[in-house]
Write a structure and sequence with these properties.
The protein is of the alpha/beta class and 446 residues long. The protein has twelve helices and 16 strands. The longest helix has 26 residues, at 230-255.
C-alpha cells in the first residue's frame, strides 16, 4: 500500500512537472527592451571599459549574444526609435530628424512593434523617453502600448514633466524631489511585470540615461570618488544608476518565474556626444549626429536562456531594424511581404543554423550626411569631409585611411548602391530641430 501511494505521488508529481513544462513551451516568450540614450560604444564593462562597473548590463551579454557590429539606422534619438518601432528605415517614411510641434511624430500610417505584438496577444507597456511625437495622436498608448509612464521627449532626470496614462495623457510636472527618472522607471517596470506575469508581455524601457544634462542622486555620485573630472563623475553616476535599475528589472523577472521565458535586448540609440557627457565611442571615429561609426555603431546584446547561446560574441553586422522580425519569429508570428520590413529574423544566424551574414548591405541618410556598409567596405560622407570617403572596416575600424583613390571601382559601386536605395526614400516630413545645412554643421542636440 505504501509503495502504491509512493508511486501515485511520484506519478502525480511527474505529471505536474510535465504540465508545467508544456505550459512553458506553449507560452509565447516575453520581450524586454532596454534602450540607453547617447551611451557610447565603449562605455560598458563588456565593451572593454573597466572604469565604471556595469555588472547587470554585462550579465545580459554573458548569458547571451554580444554584437560587436551592432548598428542603428540613424545617429540621432528620434529617427533611431522610429526605425526600431517599425523595422523599417525611417527615411522611407520621412522620419529623418528630431522635431518639434504638432506635425512631428511617427507617422500614423506606420504600424509599430507594439501593434504587431499586441495582435499576437501580448500585454504592452512603454516606460521612459518616448520621443516619437508630442501631439496627442502620437502618444505611446495610441501606438500599440497599453500603458505609458514617461516623457514625450528629452527631459531632466529630476523634476521632469511626466505622462502617466494610468491617470491621464496630459503631461504633469513632477514636484517630488525624490523622483529620479531612472529609479522611477525601474519602479514602474517591476510593478508592471509583477502584474502581468500570467500573460506574455512586451516591456519597452527607453531610459533618458545617458542624455545631457547629467544628473544623479548623491549616493551614485559618491561611488566614484576616484574620478576627479566633474562631468566624468556625473556620467559614471548616471551609468551606475541605470545599471542598478536594469538589475532590479532582471531580478523581478527571476522573482516572477519568467527569467527563462523572456527575450531580453539591450542597446543604445546612437553614439555618444563626447564633448557634452564624456561618453567614449571606443576605437570608433565620430560622435552622435554623425554617420561615422561612432555615431551609428552601438552597444547591442540579446539574451534568451536556452534558446540562444550564452557568452557568444557575434561579429557580423546587425541593425536595430532586425528586432521586430526577430521578436515576431520568436512569438510564432509571420511577417507579410506587404509590410516591407528592412530588418531580418536574427534567430537562425545566432543559433548557427545560418552561417551567412544577416545583411550584406546597410544604409544611412542623415541630411547631407550618408553612409553605406557593403561587406567590409564603408563609403561615408560625414562631419569634417565634403566628399565621400572609402574605408575597409575590418582593417580600419577607426576610419582613418581613405581608400577612394586606391579602390575607385569599389567606391563607385557603393555609391551606386546607395543612390538606388536613396531613390526609394522620401524627403523629411519636417525640418531638423537644429541647423544641419552641411555635414560640418551636424551637432549633438536631440
Amino acid at each position: 500500500m505504501r509503495m502504491l501511494v509512493a508511486i501515485t505521488v511520484a506519478a502525480l508529481g511527474l505529471a505536474a512537472r510535465q504540465t508545467g513544462w508544456a505550459a512553458e513551451a506553449a507560452r509565447k516568450p516575453n520581450i524586454v527592451i532596454f534602450l540607453a540614450d547617447d551611451e557610447g560604444y565603449g562605455e560598458l564593462g563588456c565593451q572593454g571599459n573597466p572604469e565604471i562597473p556595469t555588472p547587470h548590463i554585462d550579465s545580459i551579454a554573458a548569458a547571451g549574444v554580444r554584437f560587436t557590429q551592432g548598428y542603428v539606422s540613424g545617429p540621432y534619438c528620434s529617427p533611431t526609435r522610429a526605425g526600431l518601432m517599425t523595422g523599417r528605415y525611417q527615411t522611407r517614411f520621412g522620419h529623418e530628424w528630431n522635431g518639434r510641434g504638432p506635425e512631428f511624430g511617427l507617422p500614423v500610417t506606420e504600424t509599430t512593434m507594439a501593434d504587431r505584438l499586441k495582435a499576437l496577444g501580448y500585454a504592452t507597456c512603454a516606460i521612459g523617453k518616448w520621443h516619437l511625437g508630442e501631439a496627442d495622436q502620437f502618444v505611446a498608448t495610441r501606438r500599440g502600448f497599453d500603458e505609458f509612464l514617461g516623457t514625450r521627449s528629452n527631459s531632466p532626470f529630476f523634476h521632469p514633466t511626466i505622462i502617466d496614462t494610468r491617470v491621464s495623457t496630459e503631461a504633469v510636472p513632477v514636484t517630488d524631489n525624490r523622483f529620479y527618472t531612472t529609479e522611477a522607471y525601474a519602479d514602474r517596470a517591476c510593478e508592471w511585470l509583477e502584474a502581468h506575469r500570467e500573460e506574455p508581455f512586451f516591456l519597452y524601457l527607453p531610459f533618458n540615461a545617458q542624455h545631457y544634462p547629467l544628473e544623479a542622486p548623491q549616493k551614485y555620485i559618491d561611488r566614484f570618488p576616484q574620478i576627479a573630472d566633474h562631468n566624468r563623475r556625473m556620467f559614471a553616476a548616471v551609468m551606475a544608476a541605470k545599471d542598478d535599475a536594469i538589475g532590479r528589472v532582471l531580478a523581478t523577472l527571476r522573482k516572477i518565474g519568467q527569467d527563462d521565458t523572456t527575450l531580453v535586448v539591450y542597446l543604445s540609440d546612437n553614439g555618444g556626444p563626447t564633448d557634452k557627457t564624456t561618453s567614449s565611442n571606443g576605437p570608433l571615429r565620430g560622435f552622435k549626429a554623425e554617420t561615422w561609426e561612432g555615431g551609428v555603431r552601438v552597444p547591442f546584446m540579446m539574451r534568451w536562456h536556452g534558446r540562444l547561446p550564452a557568452g557568444k560574441v557575434y561579429d557580423h553586422p546587425v541593425i536595430q531594424l532586425d528586432l521586430l522580425p526577430t521578436f515576431l519569429a520568436a512569438a510564432g508570428g509571420e511577417v507579410s511581404p506587404d509590410w516591407k520590413l528592412d530588418g531580418v529574423n536574427l534567430l537562425p544566424y545566432l543559433t548557427g543554423d545560418n552561417p551567412a551574414r544577416p545583411h550584406e548591405t546597410l544604409y544611412w541618410r542623415f541630411g547631407k550626411q550618408m553612409a553605406i556598409r557593403h561587406g567590409d567596405w564603408k563609403l561615408v560622407r560625414a562631419k569634417g569631409i565634403t566628399e565621400p570617403a572609402l574605408f575597409n572596416l575590418t582593417a580600419d575600424i577607426g576610419e582613418q585611411h581613405d581608400l577612394t583613390a586606391a579602390e575607385p571601382a569599389t567606391a563607385r559601386k557603393l555609391q551606386s548602391l546607395w543612390d538606388a536605395w536613396n531613390a526609394e526614400q522620401i524627403p523629411p516630413l519636417w525640418p531638423p530641430n537644429k541647423p544641419q545645412a552641411t555635414p560640418a554643421a551636424a551637432g549633438p542636440g536631440g
